[in-house]
């Protein structure tokens, strides 16, 4: 049985990044353990005027509907404040973890080892266990504090993949731009499940 990938969703603008990541991961039959921070609920309300359910089973259906993948893969959702859940333990085996999108508040808390909720605790566990952790910060401009926190994470082995799209693949839609970022983030976990036109020299 394939080990699961933990997907953390923080309260940064750009929830489409999480939705598109889930779309491709579930379609490729990956097993996903998802935890959304408390602020994510507010961002759904602000960006889409949508109320994200708190019940894990209802939330699974919510994310599947948003991703447009009702069948395929496995998706287990966790309560943001359940710091005693399985993904909070170093004995829980995973492929790693990706936080997408990742707010600068979450970056700061992970960088300082502050495990005040399940997303932060799961991230901390990946670092201490030497497992892959990828963060996709969506902020601009970066302040000196942001850069120092990101540097701290990079020095601890965390991969930093800012939500910066490219144009050499000739994107036609917003989804094309988003998918480029998601694909590059998943590349760092050696996951290739997104049809992406990659760079080729002329």
Walk me through this protein's architecture:
The chain is of the alpha/beta class. It contains seven helices and six strands; from the N terminus they run βαβααββααβαβα. It has helices at 16-27, 38-48, 56-67, 104-111, 118-128, 144-155, 174-187; strands at 5-9, 31-36, 74-78, 96-102, 133-137, 159-160. Helix 6 links the parallel strand 5 and strand 6. Helix 1 packs across helix 3 (56-67) and helix 1 packs across helix 7.
Map the helices and strands.
Elements: E1 5-9, H1 16-27, E2 31-36, H2 38-48, H3 56-67, E3 74-78, E4 96-102, H4 104-111, H5 118-128, E5 133-137, H6 144-155, E6 159-160, H7 174-187
Parallel strand pairs: 1-2, 1-4, 2-3, 4-5, 5-6
Helix pairs in contact: 1-3, 1-7, 4-6
Strand count, sense and barrel status of the largest sheet are: 6 strands, parallel
Model regions low in confidence, pLDDT < 50 over at least 5 residues: none
State the CATH architecture.
3-Layer(aba) Sandwich
The tally of strands reads: 6
Radius of gyration: 16 Å
Q: What is the ordering of alpha helices and beta strands?
A: EHEHHEEHHEHEH
Q: Which strand order do you get reading across the main beta sheet?
A: 3-2-1-4-5-6
Mean pLDDT: 95
- Give the fraction of residues assigned to helices: 25-40%
Beta fraction: 5-15%
Distance between the termini: 41 Å
Total number of domains: 1
CATH level 3 topology: Rossmann fold
């Amino acid at each position: 049985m394939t080990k699961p990938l933990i997907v953390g969703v923080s309260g940064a603008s750009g929830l489409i990044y999480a939705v598109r990541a889930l779309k491709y991961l579930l379609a490729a039959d990956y097993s996903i353990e998802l935890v959304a921070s408390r602020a994510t609920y507010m961002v759904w309300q602000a960006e889409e005027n949508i109320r994200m359910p708190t019940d894990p089973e209802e939330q699974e259906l919510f994310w599947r509907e948003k991703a447009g993948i009702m069948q395929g893969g496995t998706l287990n959702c966790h309560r943001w404040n359940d710091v005693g859940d399985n993904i909070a333990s170093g004995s829980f085996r995973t492929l790693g973890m990706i936080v997408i999108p990742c707010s600068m508040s979450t970056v700061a808390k992970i960088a300082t080892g502050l495990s005040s909720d399940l997303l932060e605790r799961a991230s901390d566990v990946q670092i201490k266990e030497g497992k892959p952790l990828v963060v996709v910060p969506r902020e601009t401009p970066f302040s000196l504090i942001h850069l120092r926190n990101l540097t701290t994470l990079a020095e601890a082995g965390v991969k930093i993949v800012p939500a910066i799209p490219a144009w050499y693949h000739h994107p036609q839609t917003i989804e094309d731009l988003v998918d480029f970022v998601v694909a590059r983030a998943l590349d760092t976990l050696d996951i290739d499940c997104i049809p992406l036109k990659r760079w080729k020299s002329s």
